[in-house]
Write a structure and sequence with these properties.
By secondary structure, the chain is an all-alpha fold. Helices cover 73% and strands 1% of the residues. It contains 19 helices and 2 strands. A two-stranded antiparallel sheet has the order 1-2. α1 packs across α14 and α5 runs antiparallel to α7. It is globular.
């Protein structure tokens, strides 16, 4: 049998193999560097938290601390951290209860996601399937412009615009509360959700959409039953990234949330939790930012702040793992045989916990299927067609309303900043220049110019 003719010579073939091996080796090393960086962050924050966790009572030199073991001190610290809402690190008998700041972080993040997820997903669906490509190329950069606004500008907007509006409109005792922070965090998270979700939806191609339309599906049915489930991985990633943006934000919650320790009593009272949106709250990130500059290098207080950061890091890491778990379950439920069921690294360790957390999602899905089946039996075929057409029109209307609402939010945020700050860089002349000229020429108008300057200084406004 004749051997096939090589397209390359042996020397060129060896060079190609060497280049391929070197490229793969370099990519693997880059991935390893990223993993090592994450691991180093975990180790560094845990090491900085070690002094606080192993010293119960706040005094490392006390005799009672020597008698205790490290595990007893850690257990006592964990009970104090998650069982108390009193954070008084500088008292004679310091208290390090983190329950209030954990509750505040979860509250403002949950409130932000209630607003950001529906608006972000609807906007992404509109950009991917409801507007022409040329229009999308203009709208998407404008939406992403919200992500370019610095967080301190959002903080000024929250304090100077949103807080007075909430206080005057709804009669809140203070405008700096959890609702204020949730609104601003939602605006900050929406561009991330829109960008990632739209890329995921657009990458599916036209085949799925055309197949659904060929079967007689409406736009609403095609998008919600075919396209969105197929792009679930990217949409979950978008939601998690938006949530990470909200829970990790520091400047906005520091300026807009009020920084007060409030936990509803009892914590399981739904009305008390809803009412806490109108009260000032303290978050983990704002506590670290506010206290870090006032602590000494080797104090228990500073180590406690690192412990707060470590709790936040573990929370975000667990949230990412839970999202990966939901994604794998959804793929297996869709009949994807290529999913490796043993891919999830800590399946046997955290599987029961994640199954308990995903139980509400399973109950909601089963209730939805049962309710839809019952509704379909009670209505006729003609009414079903009317309902399908009506839901399709309602879905399209809500999609375009979400885009217009985001555009209005962008204008609302930028208008005060540009309107009040335009005189800082756009002007025709200043009073100071004629005053300088009058001093040089001694024209006798210096007193009038000084009066005019005094009037101008009295009416000039700050940026916010």
């Amino acid at each position: 049998m004749d051997r096939p003719t090589l397209l390359l010579s042996q020397r060129e073939d060896r060079i190609r193999r060497l280049r391929s091996w070197v490229g793969g080796w370099m990519l693997a090393r880059v991935a390893n560097v990223a993993m090592l960086a994450v691991f180093a962050i975990f180790v560094f924050i845990a090491w900085k938290s070690f002094l606080f966790l192993t010293t119960a009572g706040g005094d490392a030199s006390a005799p009672s601390e020597v008698q205790r073991s490290i595990f007893q001190n850690i257990a006592a610290r964990l009970v104090e951290m998650f069982g108390s809402s009193h954070w008084h690190p500088e008292r004679a008998e310091p208290e390090f209860g983190m329950l209030a700041m954990i509750y505040g972080s979860i509250l403002v993040t949950f409130g932000a996601m209630l607003i950001a997820v529906p608006l972000g997903i609807m906007t992404a669906v509109v950009l991917s399937d409801m507007v022409p490509f040329n229009v999308r190329q203009w709208i998407k950069p404008v939406m992403e412009l919200l992500a370019a606004i610095p967080s301190v500008a959002f903080g000024f907007f929250a304090v100077k615009v949103v807080a007075p509006w909430l206080q005057n409109t709804f009669g809140f005792p203070s405008g700096t509360n959890a609702m204020n922070a949730s609104l601003i965090l939602a605006v900050m998270a929406i561009p991330t959700i829109v960008s990632v979700a739209e890329d995921s939806l657009s990458s599916l191609g036209r085949e799925l959409r055309e197949a659904a339309y060929a079967l007689g599906s409406t736009r609403f049915e095609t998008l919600m039953k075919v396209v969105v489930p197929a792009a679930h991985s990217g949409i979950l990633t978008a939601i998690v990234l938006g949530m990470m943006r909200a829970i990790g934000e520091t400047m906005v919650v520091w300026m807009a949330a009020g920084n007060a320790s409030n936990v509803p009593t009892p914590w399981y009272d739904v009305y008390a939790v809803i009412g806490s949106f109108t009260e000032a709250v303290r978050t983990m990130t704002a506590t670290v930012a506010a206290d870090m500059g006032e602590t000494s290098a080797d104090s228990i207080h500073r180590s406690a702040l690192f412990a707060v950061g470590f709790v936040l890091l573990i929370f975000t890491f667990g949230l990412n793992m839970f999202t990966e778990y939901l994604s794998q379950r959804f793929k297996s439920g869709m009949g994807d045989d290529a999913v490796d069921k043993h891919r999830f690294g800590m399946k046997f360790l955290l599987g029961p916990v994640f199954r308990c957390l995903s139980l509400p999602f399973d109950l909601l899905a089963s209730w939805r299927e049962h309710a839809l089946h019952g509704i379909a039996q009670r209505i006729g075929t003609k009414n079903q067609l009317r309902i399908r057409v009506g839901m399709n029109g309602m879905f399209t209307t809500l999609g375009f309303i979400s885009v217009l609402l985001l555009g209005a939010i962008l204008c609302l945020v930028l208008a005060p900043l540009l309107g009040n700050g335009r005189e800082a860089f756009i002007f025709r002349a200043t009073v100071e220049h004629p005053l300088f000229v009058s001093k040089k020429k001694t024209s006798g108008k210096e007193k009038n110019l000084r009066d005019e300057l005094k009037t101008c200084l009295s009416v000039r406004k700050p940026v916010y």
